[in-house]
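Exercise: predict the fold of this chain.
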Amino acid sequence: MIFRHIVFSRPILLWLSLVVFMSLTNPNSMPVAFLVFPFVVFGFAVYTTWQAFVRIYARGRDKKVRPERAALLGAVISIVLVFSLGLESLGELTPRDFFVIVLFGAVVYFYMVRSLKQD
């Protein structure tokens, strides 16, 4: 039972740091280089949360969850969400753009899974 809390320690720290950073800063007064920081932290937070859920899910399953596929899917999901959030923050996200981002993420995932099978 205690291991479940340890698995979620890194995602919780990332989410808390993101919330603290977003609540204590004003984007209008920040240098442009620091505007990338929340997107990077958001991507890592989504990825580590995905990994934590996969670890918990894999513990209760008889079938083995392939860690490289789970890591790849988590990376693609976090990249798709970061790109979508970036476009939305610029006011440029339309349903068509979101569909293209998701489609591109799916193509990248299936291409990478195929390359993992060949290795």
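Check your answer against the key: Helices lie at 2-7, 9-24, 37-59, 67-90, 95-118.
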